[in-house]
Sequence to fold (505 residues):
Amino acid sequence: MRLEVRGLTKAFGDFLADDDIDLIVEPGQVHAILGENGAGKSTLMNMLYGILAPTSGQILIDGNPVRFSSPSDAIAAGIGMVHQHFKLVGPFSVADNVQLGREHVTRGRLDREGARQAVLSVSQRYGLALDPDALCEDLPVGVQQRVEIVKALSGETDLLILDEPTAVLTPPEVAELLEIIGNLTDAGMSVIFISHKLKEVKAIADSITVLRRGKVVAEASPSDTEAELAAAMVGRSVVLTVERPPADPGAVALEIKDLTVLGERGTAMLDGLNLAVRSGEIVGLAGVEGNGQTELARAVLGTITPDSGSIEMGGTPVTGWNPYRRIVAGLGYIPEDRGRDGLAGDFTVAENLVLNQYRDAPLSNRGVVDATAVRALADKAIADFDIRTRGPGELVSALSGGNQQKVVIAREFSRPRSVLVAAQPTRGVDVGAIEFIHRRLVAERDSGTGVLLISAELDEILALSDRIAVIHNGQIVGEVAPDTPREVIGQLMAGHRPADPATAS
Ligand SMILES: Nc1ncnc2c1ncn2[C@@H]1O[C@H](COP(=O)(O)OP(=O)(O)OP(=O)(O)O)[C@@H](O)[C@H]1O
Ligand SMILES: [Mg+2]
Fold:
């Protein structure tokens, strides 16, 4: 399919999210869209997929103008899309989610077996392993993304739109996805690929369009350097490495002792895990996603209760405390899944910025919230973190994905902490914001906070950590210095301990 977009514009009120966009996607090619958070990428895709009606402009498929009034029109025209935010129904199985919206009914009953077979055939054809009977809510985010991809490929798809498909994937899953995309384009499919990870874009794109504030600002080439691409995106040069003086660790700020958390089927998600974070240091937790990172973060916050073991903050046992009490005691928390644990979508940007402190002075006085103080704090956070919003009163759900993440980050950095758990802190944010967040994490450390950094990006762990702990099967299988070769960390991530006689040669 050859897709052409002419003068496409989307206005929300008097704000132009996309302004006179021209774009051509050739058949069998990967066309990447780069742009900072809020540039208008997802809005453009939503017009191509029939979710949003363009304010003006034209979409042409193989030279013929088309008009979509819903996603089913786009699907019928051969367009599939994987959204930036999952649209899965948690309590439904994988197969039920994949056939959602195109159910087959045989003699008045849902054809469940047909749906299972459809999943198995797509997942086999493209090498995307999936259990059709698993409930989506039980799956790690990486696997949920795979369900979305299988769903998008289940129609007669000629153009696949992937809106930040790799944001939630582990490095091996990313490599796998890039290979799958190669197979798709070899078979003649066109792909629109959105990512903030310049390495991936360079590796896979045939052509690149750069958006900024709703406008096409450049057509770039995959042979451009990362620095050139970053500069085109944000309109200034970006420092891609982190300046970091040596740490000066103090007393233990967070201590996790023999922590065990059992999963639903009685298997140990955390299996007697021990880990200590000192004040003034960043401890990076490396590991393949699904090895207990989520459970560890939630246990430290207090949203899951461990089956045994203890958690101490500054020497005080907090294991039995509720999350609010821990937050008041100095815990900061950036959750891996901002939609579920980080934001209240129906609340405004300002309300979300003060969720963790509106009950306290100076924002509250004898139980009455001081709206002026809240407003001042929100204005400052919006300016400091460059949150692209029409103002503190806008609903947070109207913000672009990366700007929602900035709201969470700004809130958690808005007051001093003794402990900060940062899970995937830069997921979905643009290169300019990554630079800023990394600097802030180092500044937190230098102000004496003990930082536990959980990240699926080994690059991020290596760039920021003073010490690296590797998690595997719910246990810390090794602690290494940040100058340890990647291969050694990779071995540990796969569960091979250095002293393991099975792997020693
Ligand atoms: N339904 C809506 N109502 C009002 N404003 C919206 C709506 N959807 C998007 N916007 C605004 O349009 C702009 C572009 O948003 P969009 O989601 O397209 O950005 P993006 O380039 O995908 O960013 P990100 O990289 O963060 O995902 C943002 O400023 C956003 O706040
Ligand atoms: Mg987006």
Notes: Residues 171-186 form the longest helix (16 residues). The pocket of magnesium ion (ligand 2) is lined by residues 41-42, 84, 163, 400-401 (CB under 6 Å).
